[in-house]
Amino acid sequence: EQFFKILLIGDCGVGKSSVMVRFTEDSFTESYISTIGVDFKVRTVETNNKPIKLQIWDTAGQERFRTITRNYYKGAQGILMVYDVTNMQSFENVKNWSKEVENYSDLNLVKFLIGNKCDLEDERAVTKKMGEELGKSLGLRFFESSAKTNDNIEEIFTELAKDIDDKGFNV
Ligand code: GDP
Ligand code: MG
Predict the structure, then answer these.
(1) Backbone region of residue 27 per phi and psi (left: phi > 0; alpha: psi in -120 to 50; beta: other values)
(2) pTM of the model as a whole
């Protein structure tokens, strides 16, 4: 069976762990999910008419930039770069994450830009258009998501698996 290594990257609090837990366990909690060091969870998706196992790696946000090691990126085929649509700083930091990813990872890997917490429309600070434009300028497909309401979570991982598979990555 094929498996792909997927990384979740982005500022502390944007919902990386929540996105992973929603996708792998179909649950959500209002509290912060504590992540010690790195952790991964596995789920199989059906895409391109076959099962593909995704190994999803999550980091603690405190482990920022320099301290996330090269090893973490090693062997990854897909990256979700996540910001929080209610937090402008997390959006601006995507550019820093993107630079780091380019330093460490295989240039060929599939990256998506994710604006999470789209259920919080009243608190929104980053418009959908801004997300689309950043995605375009970085050459990344862009999605908004909500780990809380499950908006787009299945789609994101399924599309990511499909794009990786279409590239012909082999493990
Ligand atoms: P991480 O530091 O990036 O892993 O973020 P967490 O997954 O721990 O989430 C941080 C906080 O944001 C928690 O209080 C979550 O309940 C909340 N959160 C995460 N995703 C969403 C979402 O899609 N919508 C809303 N309303 N809250 C979210
Ligand atoms: Mg976390």
Answers:
(1) beta
(2) 0.93
CB of 84 within 6 A of ligand 1: the answer is: no
How many Å lie between the centroid of ligand 2 and the Cα of residue 159? 23
Nearest atom in ligand 1 to 31's CA:
14
Tens digit of each residue's pLDDT (9 = 90 or more) over 102-148: 887 777 899 999 999 999 999 999 999 999 999 999 999 999 999 99
Residue 27 pLDDT class (50, 70, 90 cuts) = very high
Protein residue closest via CA to atom 13 of ligand 1: 32
- For ligand 1, the distance from its centroid to the CA atom of residue 27, given in whole angstroms, is 12
- What angle do helix axes 94-104 and 128-138 make, rounded to 10 degrees? 20
Per the model's pLDDT, the better-predicted residue between 153 and 103 turns out to be 153
Q: How far apart are CA 6 and CA 80, in angstroms?
A: 7
pLDDT in tens, 84-101: 999 999 999 999 999 988
User: Distance of alpha carbon 53 from its chain centroid, rounded?
Assistant: 16
- Give CA–CA dist 85/130, Å, rounded: 10
